[in-house]
Amino acid sequence: MKFGPRRPADAIGGVTVHSLRQNGLLLKKGTTIGPAEVAALEKAGIAEIVVVQLEPGDVSEDVAAADVAGAVAGDGVTVDRAFTGRANLFAARTGVLVIDRAVVDRVNAVDEAITLATLPAFKPVVEGEMVATVKLIPFGVEGRLRDAAVAAALGGALRVAPYVIKRVGVVSTLLSGLAPKVIDKTLRVTAERLAPAGAEIIAERRVAHEEAALSAAIQELVGLGAEMVIVFGASAIADRRDVIPAAIGAIGGTISHFGMPVDPGNLLLVGAVSGVPLLGAPGCARSPVENGFDWVLMRLLAGLTVTRADITAMGVGGLLMEIVTRPQPRVPVAESGRNVAAIVLAAGRGTRMGGPNKLLADLNGKPLVHIVAEQALASQAARTIVVTGHQAGEVEAALHGLDLTFVHNPDFAQGIASSVKAGIAALGEDADGAIVCLGDMPLIDAALIDRMITAFDPDRGALIVVPVAEGRRGNPVLWSRRFFAELMTLGGDVGARHLIAKHGEAVTEVPVEGEAAFLDIDTPQALDQARRG
Fold first, then answer.
1. pLDDT in tens, 68-119
2. How far is residue 488's CA from residue 382's CA, in Å, rounded to a whole number?
3. Considering only CA atoms, which of 246, 300, 241 is closest in space to residue 270?
4. Got the DSSP string for 494-529?
5. DSSP assignment, residue 40?
6. How far apart are alpha carbons 231 and 253 in whole angstroms?
7. 20/95: higher pLDDT
8. Omega of the bond prior to 332 within 30 degrees of 0, cis?
9. Sign of dihedral through CA atoms 254, 257, 259, 260?
10. Confidence class of residue 186 from pLDDT cuts 50, 70 and 90?
């Protein structure tokens, strides 16, 4: 293949290496030079152009890319038409992408001119999803190199294994303290996991967390035609001799592997009963967030064997995310407050009240904001910070005499997020958490704040604490220091509710009665309700 500058007349059949814009002429990169292009170049006064010209034995980039892609594609994979030296490969059906790493490496080792890139091995894909691409770096390549790459891909480098398991049985074991709603949620999450594979839960059983009851439930589900059984233990599997593995062994089942180097997902068990694959699910499988359970589940649904070697090879890339509920080293603090600070947001303009600053409105002889700050000070909170903004002087005057730290938010007009950030920024390095109170919620008392601080337990994964009544979450909200950085990214007049949803596994709910956790004084009617209340 020849590469270099040529006179237009000598460049016929060549392909332009660079786009050219000069004297009114636009010639794009990759244009094949013919008589018309030569005439246009000469008319524009261009004496020289850089081109690539194929020599005998060479093949063009599109031909080479198409040939290599065709050799790479296996069952369940289609190849799109090559264009500009690229041939893309797509899933012809929904399933799990299976890749022969050795074949991919052989193709890429043939020559730097030929490249093959794929999605990660064993990734679940849907029909029409792009799974790989072959790209030729130059505009052409020697035919022998194309042939070598095709030979290296003999037998195909990737295929899509279709989902074959459709009927799944689920067993949940029970211990005191495991709420039925946890199991209900687990079943919903599991059904959602199975849906993309066209699989469904055909039956579910809830039995005591003991060997005999679990063995019987597993056998029953297999007898009902379950093609896979998933066991969610009320207590995590701690050893091969624990309840779940013991129950499997008691009915002649086998355990191929326990544990995996994927986090979250460490405590996964893979086994079989009567030829039916069985998964002992780790606790993280109750969450819809991707974890190691997904990696094994989807392979099994596609009928792929998952061996001990397969699982132990998952360590590289196996750290999927930081587990926010995992205990972190920290300096021991006094039991009184686990070092939780109270932040009272008192910067807003309260435009919905349609009049004077609502925070200064009288309730039982005191301004609203004074009542809120007083209750925070009376609680176990280590200190109380008040964020001011609108009419800061008047708000501070209404709080005169109280042992408070004031922080002014000059950006209060931008919304509540700016006040949250101002309060968080004012906390010291010793704060383990912060309970964010709204200055217009005067019915929140010290007793509720104390209950929330008591429920706050980072060592047990209770990192966000919210008051709840009949499934409805209210205010205030207590946040672990682990989330301060995320709180500092908030913007506009939007609170942090989306963060609570995002980190659902870290949320602990404190039951409350009445309207105290929901009544904010936004309107004159709400103020009247509080006065009656």
1. 999 999 999 999 999 889 999 999 999 999 999 999 999 999 999 999 999 9
2. 21
3. 300
4. --SHHHHHHTGGGEEEEE--SSTTT----SHHHHHH
5. H
6. 14
7. 95
8. no
9. negative
10. very high
DSSP string for 452-489: HHHH-BGGGTB-EEEEEETTEE-S-EEEEGGGHHHHTT
SS3 assignment for 362-398: EECCEEHHHHHHHHHHHCCCCCEEEEEECEHHHHHHH
Pairwise CA distance, residues 328 & 337, whole Å = 18
The pair of three-digit structure tokens given for residue 361, joined into one six-digit string: 């409105």
**Separation in Å, CA 159 to CA 92, 100, 118:** 9, 9, 11
Q: Where are the alpha helices (DSSP H) in 21-179?
A: 35-43, 61-72, 101-110, 143-152
pLDDT tens figures, 44-79: 888 888 877 777 888 988 999 999 999 999 999 999
Is the overall model pTM greater than 0.85, yes or no?
A: no
Alpha-carbon torsion (464, 469, 473, 477), positive or negative: negative
> For strand 340-346 and strand 464-469, is the pairing parallel, antiparallel, or unpaired?
unpaired
Q: In the numeric block, which tokens belong to residue 462?
A: 């209770």
- Go through 38-55 and write b for each residue having 16 or more CB atoms within 10 A of its CB, e for each that does not: bebbeebebeebebbbbe
Bridge partners of 49, per DSSP, are: 6
